[in-house]
What does this fold into?
Amino acid sequence: MGSSLPPKEANLFKLIAKSYETKQYKKGLKAADQILKKFPEHGETLAMKGLTLNCMDSKAEAYELVRKGLKNDLKSHVCWHVYGLLYRSDREYREAIKCYRNALRIDPENIQILRDLSLLQAQMRDLGGYVETCRTLLTLKPNHRNYWIAFAIAHHLNKEPSKAVDILIAYEGTLEEDYPPDNERYEHSEMLLYKISLLEEAGDLEKALEELNNKLVKIVDKLGAKEIQASLLLKLHRYKEAEKSYVNLLEINSENHRYHEGLKKSLGISVENGTEGVDTVTKLTDLYSDLQRKYPKSVAMKRIPLDFLEIGSFRSAVDEYMRPLLRKGVPSLFSDLKSLYSQPGKAHVLEEILLGYESSLRMNGSFPGSTEQEPPSTLLWTLFLLGQHFDRRHAFDKALQKINEAILHTPTVIDLYLMKGRIFKHAGDALAAAALADEARSMDLADRFLNSECVKRMLQADQVEQAEKTASLFTKDGDQHNNLYDMQCMWYELASGDSYYRQGLLGKALKKYLAVEKHYADMVEDQFDFHTYCIRKMTLRAYVHMLRFQDHLHSHRFFHQAAISAIRCYLRLFDSPPKSAAEEEEAAMRGMAPAEKKKLRQKQRKEAARAKKQEAEEKLKEEEAAFSSSNKGGKKGSQPPKTADTDPDGEKLLQVEDPLGEATKYLKLLQDHSSEVLETHLLAFEIYMRKKKYLLALQALKRQLKLGLESPDVHRCIIRFFNDVDNLPPPSTDSGKLVNSVIELERSCFKSIESKTLLQANESFLNMNKDSLRHRAAAAEVLFLLAPEQKSTAVEILESSVCSHSAGGGEIAEGVPSWGLKDCCLVYDIFSNTLKDLDAASRWKSRCADLFPFSTFFNGVKSSATCGSENYTYCRKMQASQPPGPLAANGHLPDFSALKIIS
It folds into this structure.
């Protein structure tokens, strides 16, 4: 570096490099300017000055200087390396790799360039190149531990675990017998565990177990070693030894469910989704009877049997399990029992037991069959659990009655108000839910969870401004937008985006959804710093796990939700493009008198000039802040100023030229990472149909068939596709004829329309799914699409729907409609927007108002839209109106069954 300079300038050049590494950018610039005074065309100095300016946010000037330096000294590896660093800082990794390769042609043994190249290859998953670069580094520096480890990891990531094991064995051969010293015991232990995991992944289980047993003395993580040993024994079918290992692990931690699963497998007991046979249940019952005697205080030993016991044994077991937890007052008990509701009959048993508890506690102050007096709080938590139970079974009247009685019992328990809000949310009254969440929040203003819960409920009720103010109570300096974005608070951005979407504010909605996408892009970039850190710290198993997690990062549900919502926004933008400013101005002036038009234009000119002036002032402030920040150099504690949001309403996002092109970007990510989700292919169909790419739409249809054969959405897409194709004019080009021939060949794959007209296929679909409201809605919509003249028949299909009831231990309680609120809202939308029959929509709304009395969408008789938003305070008022001393002599709440709790 700087070898072509005289000694004095060469030392100054070294000072530039040192200043860059220590972030003393001002000092580095001064040294560069001193060199350039004498040698203004020195390429390496120009490049280093550009690199320094890049760190001071002068990117345009930085690129100009680096390119000029490269032009002046095209054969300098320093210039190419700096150019690569510049691209790397802008996340242009492919361009950076090209620059590094050019630098290596000039200086093929430069360690620093090779290291930088290897990091980018790992980041971009260029695994073949990563292996070669690591091999070169190891050849140049065979005594460096990190290069041995990086070479092994490179082969591991390249799906060659056996070669990775050979490399680690070779590395161990370079170590002394008494290695490691005390200060490196942990790092060496992690390397040994990583080697064992490689042997396991390579399929050599015997050798992995032998290695584990031989090196057990040098392994620091004793518990992890025991877990790996038990897992290997199980995979090797050495069940007796595996059983012994898992029994030992249970002695260490009897609450770990993974140990329970391992023990069951080692005993040859197969458990699959609650479908155990009689023999399996008997074996499991005997096993857990012994374990309960051995570990009488273990919660897991009592909870796990509830999943497989038959109804007769289940009743006594769940009774024994719930009593101590209700006595202690465990609010999360329902979350623990929630999985039991999917098993037939168990929900009904739970209801009988809980109602028995309530009756006995009211009458005697004790549990059924017991003479021991319970504390008053036991009745409170029993009522709380009953409220959650009835909410789960959609019996919202009963759920509210129990929660209201619990609030009357002890008005200071915050969980009761949160639960009551959830009941209202599930019943369709988001306004009351938000009000109750705010009531709970106000009872403990220092609780961040309560604040977040309140914000979530407010956003669900479309109270965005109020939600922002509430969220700002727990953000730094009250600047909720920047802080929530910096904290990657994705649930808030998704909830607010959904609220804006419901309100038709697509710009603001898109802004929130794209912020979530940006978070995931940042997560991908954040892994860059770990490529060197993890190898240096020898956290090798965690490092490989992190890389594999990153490979599937975009399959996370938050990204999936944001991408799907963004695609829907773009589809709406394509279907209803926003008007331009000129069109809006023309529409506003239409019908105005000449004098009024003149006044309006003058006003618009003044507003434009004011906005321009304000923008210039903001830009000047930003430049001044950036200049003051750059003067601080790299001093500790200095932070770059936050740039002002120039598009708070997302108006620029609405002016996108190709909405379908933007939607396709996110669709590609969903197809790569969420191909098993039906909604991905439904959206793919919508995009490709709008693009008139019928073969891609057909491909999306075929994938839909694999994932959702009986889905009403798939039926809609099939009929719509073939209806559109059949109505296309005859193709005039060879490619068009080829597309038609392919579609005709693939038509036989769709059994629902084979040898039938589309109308007949739709009628057959309706006859097969008469009991489902969603399927009837799809059939009615398709009928109107195929035959608009049969609109009255489509209306009759929907209005003749019968709301069935579910009795016994099903998910929905007896006497409660089996229709979902969302499905009924969908039908109302079909009446209003698709069929455009306002009378039918009004009749449907009246019908659903009776079925969903708490729903604000249908103006139910018990909703806050009808009763007033302060309806939630009824219990507090009722509590205040009660005479003092409402408790019975034994300290328990008297029977409130005569009270009419209306909330």
